[in-house]
Amino acid sequence: MKKIIIASTSTLHEERYLEYLLPVLESHFKNCKSILFIPYARPGGISHDEYTQKATEVFLSINISVKGIHEFENPETAIKEAEGIFTGGGNTFLLVSQLYRKNIMQLLSETVKNGTPYLGTSAGSNICGLSMQTTNDMPIVYPPSFQTLGLISFNLNPHYLDAALESKHMGETREERIHEFHAFNSVPVLGLREGSWLEIKGEKITLKGNLSARLFQQNQLPTELDPESDLSNLN
Amino acid sequence: MKKIIIASTSTLHEERYLEYLLPVLESHFKNCKSILFIPYARPGGISHDEYTQKATEVFLSINISVKGIHEFENPETAIKEAEGIFTGGGNTFLLVSQLYRKNIMQLLSETVKNGTPYLGTSAGSNICGLSMQTTNDMPIVYPPSFQTLGLISFNLNPHYLDAALESKHMGETREERIHEFHAFNSVPVLGLREGSWLEIKGEKITLKGNLSARLFQQNQLPTELDPESDLSNLN
Predict the structure, then answer these.
(1) Nearest chain A alpha carbon to B185
(2) What's A76's domain CATH number?
(3) Angle at Cα B193 formed by Cα B190 and Cα B195, nearest 5°?
(4) Which of A40, A149, A158, A36 has its CA nearest to residue A97?
(5) Biological process (GO) annotations (chains A, B) (predicted)?
C-alpha cells in the first residue's frame, strides 16, 4: 500500500527545517528505525554530507536515524533495503539528472509504489508527478529526460505563489507559466502553497495543511481546492 | 560586424510593446526595409500568426515590415535572406526546441555573427548566451540541448529581479538560483533588469538603459555594473 507525503516546502518562514511537518512524519515513519535520505538536489550547491547532516539532526528528534544514499556503495541496494525514503529539496534538474545517472529512477518509483514510506519536499515532491515540467527551478544541468516517478497521475508546482497584483515586474506569473505548460501538455497541475502537502495512503490522495491548493487543468479555469479535498481521481 | 541588441524585456510596466526601445530600434534596423520575426517562443501559447501580428504593428510605426519565419517554406532560406532578425520572448524551452527541430540554431548564430542586425527580447535574449541554463522559464517542452547561439561569451538572466526582503516565501531567490548554477558551471551570468539591454557593435559590448546590471561570477561575490559599462572582455 502506497504511503507517501508530498510537501510543497521543507521549511516555513521563521520555522526550523521540517518543523511544521514533524508530528506528521512521526506517524508516517512510525515503523522505521532508519530512513534513506536522497540529497542529490543539493540546495545552494551544499555537499551531500552537509545536506544529510541537516536531515539527520531533525529526524534524531523523533528517534529515526538517517543515512545518505551517497554513503552506500550501491544506490540500488540502498533503495531496495530502505525502511523509508526522504528526498530533500533543491534543484530539480540536478536531482532528476542524478536519479537517471545512477539508474534508479524506475527502481525508486517501483519501491515507493510497493509501499516503502516516502517523503518528498520541494524538488523531492516535484519528482512524484508524471514529469518535472512544472518545476520552478533553473536548468543548471541537462537531464536525460523530464519524466519522473509518476507516483500520482498529475504534476505538481511546489512553492505555489499567487501573482502580486501590485507588481510592476513583467516576467511571467506562476499562473501564466502553468498556462504555457497547458498549451502543450494535458497533464493537470496542482499548485501546492507553502504549508500544504498531499497525503497518499493506498490509492487515496488527500490535500493536507491549512491552505487551499490551486488546480490547473487544460482548457479550464483554475479552481481552488479546500484542505481535506480528495484528489484520488485527478488525472 | 556584429550588430545586436539583447533586451531584458520587450515591455515595461504600463508601456506598450517595445515602446521604450523604439528609438534604439529605428537606428539599429535603419538599413532594413523588412525584418524576419521568430515567434517560436509563443508567450502564453498564442499562435505564430498572432505573435507576428503584434510585432508587425510596432515596426510599422518605424516603417519596417515584418514577416514571420513560419510563413516561409524554408526557414533556412528565411534566415539567410533576412535584412534583420527579431526573436521575441515567451518560453525559452519552446524556442530552443523549435530552433533545433528546424535545424537553424547554428545557421542563426553564424548569420548574426556575420553582421545581420539582431534584436532579442527575454527568451530571444536568453538564447544569445552560451546556454539557456539561466532562464527563468518553466521546462514545458524537452529541448535536445541547452546550448544556444553563443553570440556572447557569458549567460544572461533577463527580467532580473532583486530578492524581496520582506517576503515570507521560501522558494529560492533569483540570486540563489544563479548561485546554484555556479555550483556546476563556470560561465559568468549577467542579471539584466527590465529596461536594460546590451548593445553589441563588432566586439564591443555595452550595457544600456538607466539601471545597473548584476554580474555573477563563479566563486566571487556579485557586483553591480553601471550603465555604459563595457562588457567586451567578460568571459
Answers:
(1) A140
(2) 3.40.50.880
(3) 125
(4) A40
(5) proteolysis
Instruction: Report ipTM for this prediction.
Output: 0.93
Strands B189-191 and B213-216: antiparallel
Q: Is B97 a catalytic residue?
A: no
- Closest of B16, B25, B7 to residue B121, by C-alpha: B7
Residue A136 lies in a domain: yes
User: How would you label A213-226 residue by residue, b for 16+ Cβ within 10 Å and e otherwise?
Assistant: bbbbbeeeeeeebe
In chain A, how many domains are there? 1
CB contact under 8 A, A159 and B140: no
Residue A137 included in any domain: yes
For A35-83, how does the pLDDT look when each residue is reduced to its tens digit (9 = 90+)?
Answer: 999 999 999 889 999 999 999 999 999 999 999 999 999 999 999 999 9
For residue B154, what is its C-alpha cell?
A: 557569458
* Domain ranges, residue B52: 3-225
Is residue A122 annotated as a catalytic residue, yes or no? yes
Adjacent-strand bridge partners of A156: A190
Q: What is the per-residue pLDDT across B61-118, written as a single tens digit (0 to 9) for each?
A: 999 999 999 999 999 999 999 999 999 999 999 999 999 999 999 999 999 999 999 9
The closest of B134, B133, B29 to B86, measured between CA atoms, is B29
Q: Is A159 a catalytic residue?
A: yes
**CA distance to partner chain B, nearest, from residue A157 (Å):** 10
